[in-house]
Amino acid sequence: TCEIHILWKCSKTSSLKCVANFTTSLELVWPNVWSKLNRDHSHLPNENMVIAEKIKCNMKQQPKITSRLPGQIFSETVISQPKEVLNQLPCKNSIKRTLRNQRTGNHPKDGNCDDLKTLKVENEWALYHNENLLLHDNGTDAEERILVFDGNFKLAPKPFLQMYVIRIEKNSVYVSTLFILMENKTRSSYESMFSIILNICKDRDLYPDPTFLNMDFEMAVIKAPKIF
Question: What is the pLDDT of residues 161-220, one digit of tens each?
Fold first, then answer.
């Protein structure tokens, strides 16, 4: 790479003494090709190796966007690949080690925080699979720092989306009374949930009539009880 262009060389320059090369503009995405191959490759193309390289790049991206373990990422990726492609990949332990290093690099350098005034939970750290994990943060200027997280997405077993917990106050103590596994988070889903809860209570000669409900900030669940 120089100040005005990028010189691309064959990856087999050293091992096979291939002298094929070409130049492009400095953009890495859709660059302008300034010169096509100045010299032909001295070897045949290896399409299986190209596929293997794409697979490796894809696996290295997975720790950034998923919570799956390195072993799971590896198994799910290679299971459908032919033997000819698998032979071009590094060994399983080497790939898993690379994925672990990738995951570690995505984490904060120091997992401990001695000063809450400097703690910021934002961007991808406030999300879990593109869902809001951080529900509330009263900020670094607050006299007493309070952060509210929603962890129900992780508790729900597949194929459910979340586990909804109903808590009630009894003798000045809040206790968990119901645990509901749900596939969706729509208003109709929550209306069905509250309807089922009321029917369960009715079967037991219980007729709850709460004066208020404490909920999270999701509008679908806030509006759902209003029909009852």
Answer: 888 888 888 888 888 888 888 888 889 888 988 988 898 889 889 888 888 888 877 888
pTM over 0.70: no
d(CA 89, CA 121): 37
What is residue 205's predicted lDDT score, i.e. its pLDDT?
92
Token digits of residue 89: 């990949």
Judge contact between 5 and 25, C-beta under 8 A. yes
In 3D space, the residue among 1, 159, 130 whose CA is nearest the CA of residue 67 turns out to be 130
Q: What is the DSSP string of the chain?
A: --SS-EEEE-TTTTTS----EEEE-S-SSS--EEE--SS--SS---HHHHHHHHHHHHHHHHHHH----HHHHHHHHHTTS-HHHHTTSPPHHHHHHHHHHHHHHHS-S-S--S-GGG----GGGGEETTEE-EEEE--TTSSS--EEE--HHHHSPTT-SEEEEEEEEETTEEEEEEEEEES--SHHHHHHHHHHHHHHHHHTT-----S-----S-HHHHHGGGG-
C-alpha distances (whole Å) from 215 to each of 53, 96, 135, 174 are: 48, 41, 11, 14
pLDDT, tens digit, 9 for 90 and up, residues 33-75: 766 666 778 888 888 988 998 999 889 888 877 777 889 899 9
Distance from chain centroid for Cα 183: 19
Percent of the chain with pLDDT over 70: 81
